[in-house]
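Why show two proteins at once? Because comparison is the fastest way to build intuition. When a single record is shown, students tend to memorize it. When two are placed side by side, the eye starts asking what differs. So, the first record is below.
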Amino acid sequence: MSEPRRVSLPDPAPDAPGNTPPTTLADLAVEIRSKNAGPFWITLDAFMRDDAGYAVAEEIITADLIANLYAVPAADVLIFRIPELKIIKASFPRLTSQGSLHDRDIHAGQHHVPLARINVAHIHPPAPGHD
């Protein structure tokens, strides 16, 4: 049996798709998701790809941002940072309780979209080794 043929491809151009700088928080993340945290709370999870992405998420994900995105008081937003795992969690009270007449997303599975779409192009992570 012959050896598989290997083809060398040129490096993509700097402006080729996939080589563009990240513009949204989702571009820096492995996953951004939302879920119920009981019938009265929602939790957002941002699983970042690397330390640089975590640094950007850590700067941008604040109680004020979550309050603005989800129309809840900033004082009610809880932020949990887990740098060892490159995860940031934000929890806040649901505007309607899970399963109530006016609940449009019983599993809270679509609430992550506003956070994922936050523009991060203007934020530059710290250089490696600098805090």
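Second record. Ask yourself what differs from the first in the token line.
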Amino acid sequence: MMFHMKQKYCAEFDEDDATAWKNTLPDAIKDWDEVKNAKDGESFWNQMSNMRSMMGQSIRIPTEDAGADALKEFDERLMSKVPSLMRKPDFEDDAVMASFYQQMGRPEEKDKYVAPELKAPEGIVLDETLAGNFKDIAFKNGLSQKQYEGVVKDYTASSVGVAEGQLEAHQQGMKELSTEWGAAFEQNLGRAEAVRSKYFGDVVEDINLAGAPIVKAFNSIAEKFGKEGSSNLIEETIGRSNVLAPAEAKERLNEILSNKDHAYWVAQDPSHKDAVDKVVSLTKLAHPNMNTDTEKLRA
């Protein structure tokens, strides 16, 4: 029908007249964009023929007045034409959601998630149970294998960042404590360890990882035992040696140097030599990083 109409209208105008063919068309279609944009009658009718073919393959979209059956038919026709489309699931239907998650890449069982390979910087210990424990959460929330790996890696990276900051702070704190205690550092650390192992072993596993504030607190406890004269506790926690920290050594050194009646200043005093040795020893403890001229002090 359309082909014969095409022949009829094309035959009724002079092919040299580029616009005469439009005058043969019904008035109802003369203002169509397809007519206005066509360069000639031949191209117009070819376009109409193509449009007719396309209409045969098109799917009409139901309006809001369509019933359930019509909507279902439309859905089935659309899915048959475009199999890659995915229906919006009913989020309240567990069975539907389970199928949806599986289509999105979730394993059939939680144990089928494969944990990614993780590496930690030197000095950082990773929680190896994290990836395994997270499988329950990943499966419950419908994560695919790729999503599961991504979350585990991101969470681990975040945890490592926090741990690195804590490690740096711990190392800096112990470094400052070493400077504060000077030659007494190993002694005080040993005292702190003795207190930890005897009284706080269930709370603090390793004195070297406890941190400077805790080490100082435990050493203070050991010193308190000594000042109270608890002989058994002294032997168990601080032993018999007593190396002074730089701050205490400075205080004692200043006491001697400011006391002009001290044996250190009186050459004729029988205790002068011992006093000089004491000043030399206190000076070394008070200034552990200083190249002290002990002979000058003795003179």
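One difference worth noting in the second protein: The mean pLDDT is 78.
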